[in-house]
């Protein structure tokens, strides 16, 4: 940390909570800087300052772990030669411009939902490796109704051009919409969910990944992101045996 930074950013970068939650901690007197309670939200801290939250000293990390709720019409890359909006455009360049962040895996342009963005290469590599079988859950809206027989076929496996693909779990939507299903898979083949639905003679109209490796988009609006908590990062590490 070469330049002074706002206290809420310092707290958030330690993995404690979001900036908004950090502001609340500061305002309620739960934060000390160099032994003194600080309640002014614009306070800045410098290298060497001692920061405590609820009596526990914290320190920022150079590793970042963000969960983005990817919106539609956004490319899952760090840049695009055609000038189309990519997921990195949704992050503040002043905050993350030099962090070396990249998306973990891909969601196609029209698929929305949970996307992990990090600069932790070891974790990203393992999360994308098929041997670790990271779970992904999708809410799918199809062109035509999905029958009970279709659900059985998806669970037993449908034949794709690169082999058999089957859902780990697939259920009809609890709201009773016959064109909506919830499906979990652990594989990560290209356009796998869309191709599985196409193998039924149907087509995907909307595809939203609501869970990725246990990380939920609940509470995160489309196009927005949040930092992972320490326990969430620890869970990811356990899942891939790091």
Description of the structure:
By secondary structure, the chain is of the alpha+beta class. It folds into three domains: 5-58, RNA-binding S4 domain (Structural Genomics Hypothetical 15.5 Kd Protein In mrcA-pckA Intergenic Region, Chain A); 65-130 and 218-239, Alpha-Beta Plaits (2-Layer Sandwich), CATH 3.30.70; 135-212, Pseudouridine synthase, CATH 3.30.2350. The protein is 22% helix and 28% strand. The protein contains seven helices and 17 strands. It has helices at 7-13, 19-27, 93-96, 121-128, 148-156, 192-198, 230-239, and strands spanning 5-6, 31-33, 36-37, 44-45, 51-53, 56-58, 65-70, 102-103, 112-118, 136-142, 158-160, 163-165, 169-172, 180-185, 204-212, 215-216, 225-227. The strands form four sheets. Strands 7, 8, 9, 10, 13, 14, 15, 16 and 17 form a nine-stranded mixed β-sheet that branches. The protein has a four-stranded antiparallel β-sheet with strand order 3-2-5-6, with no helix packed on it. Strands 1-4 form a two-stranded antiparallel sheet. β2 and β3 form a beta hairpin. α1 packs across α2 (19-27). The model has no long low-confidence stretch (mean pLDDT 90).
């Amino acid at each position: 940390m070469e330049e002074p930074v706002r206290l809420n950013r310092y707290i958030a970068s330690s993995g404690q909570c979001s900036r908004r939650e950090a502001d609340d901690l500061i305002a309620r007197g739960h934060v000390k800087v160099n032994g003194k309670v600080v309640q002014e939200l614009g306070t800045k801290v410098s290298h060497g300052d001692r920061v405590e939250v609820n009596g526990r000293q914290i320190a920022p990390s150079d590793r970042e772990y963000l969960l983005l709720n990817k919106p539609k019409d956004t490319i899952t890359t760090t840049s695009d030669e055609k000038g189309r909006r990519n997921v990195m455009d949704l992050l503040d360049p002043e905050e993350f411009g030099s962090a070396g962040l990249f998306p973990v895996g891909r969601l196609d342009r029209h698929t929305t939902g949970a996307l992990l963005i990090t600069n932790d290469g070891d974790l990203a590599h393992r999360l994308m490796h098929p041997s670790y079988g990271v779970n992904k859950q999708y809410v799918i809206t199809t062109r035509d109704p999905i029958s009970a027989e279709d659900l059985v076929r998806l669970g037993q496996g449908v034949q794709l051009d690169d082999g058999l693909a089957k859902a780990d779990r697939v259920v009809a939507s609890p709201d009773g919409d016959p064109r909506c299903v919830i499906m979990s898979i652990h594989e990560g083949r290209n356009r796998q969910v869309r191709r599985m639905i196409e193998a039924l003679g149907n087509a995907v109209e909307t595809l939203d990944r609501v869970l990725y490796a246990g990380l939920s988009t609940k509470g995160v609006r489309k196009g927005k992101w949040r930092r992972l908590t320490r326990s969430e990062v620890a869970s990811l590490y356990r899942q891939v045996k790091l």
